[in-house]
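ok so for the tutorial part 2 we go from a plain amino acid sequence to predicted structure tokens. step 1 is just haveing the sequence, like this:
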Amino acid sequence: MRILTILAWLVLLPAPILAAGDGHHHEGDEHMAGMMAVKDTIPEEYRIMDRTPVTPTSASLKRGAELFRTNCTVCHGEKGRGDGPAAAGMKNKPANFHDQAHSRIYSPGEKYWIIGHGTKQTGMPAFGERLAPLQRWDLVNFIVQLPKEGTDDLFN
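step 2 — the prediction. this is what the tokens look like for a chain of 156 residues:
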């Protein structure tokens, strides 16, 4: 099943994203510029959401971890470091959720909106039709926890 998911993502990736890169985020690189451009397109009601409406309980984090494994690892990697199998061929590298400065660019509400709508600027696909609102909030809860120390046990 995982092979099929990876193959599906590789087929679905837009051609402009498939270009070699060095795998690192640089302050002036296209990824960061794309991220900042995305902020301007996110509706105000999501930009001001500095926390999720779903309490990040252990059950929510566990559901978020499973959703991450199923939907996100092909690009973001098994531990959320932006090093998934598809990342090597992407011009704009996927987010490394352990990079706190990088992770703080978007509020939880903005992350929720991006998961649902995707972004052309960064190559993030939309999951709004695949994931229900509660699932997206569980995923945001999980992603928000990743830059904190000692989060490797969230993957178990």
